[in-house]
Amino acid sequence: MKDILFTGSGVAIVTPFHTGAVNFPAFGRLIDRQIDGGTDAIIVCGTTGEAATMTQKERMETIAYCVDRVAGRVPVIAGTGANDTQVARENALAAERLGVDGLLIVTPYYNKATQQGLLRHYKVIADSVGSHHPLQRPLPHRGQHPAGDLCGAGPTPQHRRCQGGQREFRPNPKNPEPLPCRFLHLVRQ
């Protein structure tokens, strides 16, 4: 397993539709344009895209198409999160079988879980997948807990990386050092 999935800039790519279906020719052109322009990773079906309104079949077909089109040129990270832990787990396993390089797991939307509940949500998914890096995307405006607090809660030894903070890394005061874990907290600068 790679310690670092990618460095640089990853694009949360849009999923183009035409007449109610994914427009795969246009999607392929967008993927190629991003890679030709120097992006370092493609994030497909993320929270900024259309995944929440796609059927499960559309979502998995889009991820599969992206993996095939990218063909190893850059890492592909698939948004597999859901507000239901078991659905998010199944999505992660399906994306893993399709050949993605990483998984983007969103904080469960609509559910205002406790800190321990969030940790269990991410742990169930991380423990279910192979060598892929689950990337955690907490959404503080949804009333969730910051990643630094999750890291301080003591993830299991199989987790590899944990970073947190809103604009900069601010570790949990009870645990001033970042913990080695498999979660990477993504933040907008």
Task: Give an overview of the whole structure.
With about 190 residues, the chain is α/β, with parallel strands linked by helices. It is built from five helices and eight strands, in the order βββαβαβαβαβαβ. The chain has helices spanning about 25-35, 55-70, 85-100, 115-130, 145-150; strands at about 10, 15-20, 20, 40-45, 75-80, 100-105, 135, 185. It has a six-stranded parallel β-sheet, with helices on one face. β2 and β3 form a beta hairpin.
Itemize the secondary structure elements and their pairings.
Layout: E1 10-12, E2 17-18, E3 21-22, H1 24-36, E4 41-44, H2 56-70, E5 76-79, H3 85-98, E6 102-106, H4 115-128, E7 133-137, H5 147-152, E8 184-185
Parallel strand pairs: 1-4, 4-5, 5-6, 6-7, 7-8
Antiparallel strand pairs: 2-3
Please report the number of helical segments. Answer: 5
Let me know the largest β-sheet.
Answer: 6 strands, parallel
The count of DSSP E runs of length 2 or more, i.e. the number of strands, is 8
Low-confidence stretches: 138-172, 175-189
Overall average pLDDT: 75
Q: What is the rounded Rg? A: 16 Å
How much strand content do the residues show? 5-15%
The helix content is: 25-40%
Overall geometric form? globular
What spatial order of strands do you see in the largest sheet?
1-4-5-6-7-8
Distance between the termini: 28 Å
Q: Give the structural class.
A: alpha/beta
Q: What order do the SSEs take from the amino end to the carboxyl end, as H and E?
A: EEEHEHEHEHEHE
